[in-house]
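Worked Example 4.2. Consider the chain below.
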Amino acid sequence: MRIWPWPFFIFHHKYTYIHPFIDGNGRSARLLTNLILMKNGYPICVIKMEDRGEYMNALEKASVEDNYDDFIKIIEKAVDASLDNYLYIVG
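Applying the procedure from the previous section yields the following structure tokens:
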């Protein structure tokens, strides 16, 4: 049974929050998030440049208010868009 791996998206936020590297924290967090998605049978999540502001605001909201709702919605939206693209290509 596949699970929706939203708890791992919280990992994504925490990883970027602790900022373990000088550069590339967001990229490596998105890469690990995509690995988790693929491992659970989901398509990858692509945060488009036009959604970057919303993505950054949602990360900030998660940090300041401990509210992940907007962040999870952004990831879900990106996964849905990837799934739509896959279905269009194969169908």
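The first helix runs from residue 6 to 18. Helices lie at 6-18, 25-39, 52-65, 69-90. Compare this with Example 4.1 before moving on.
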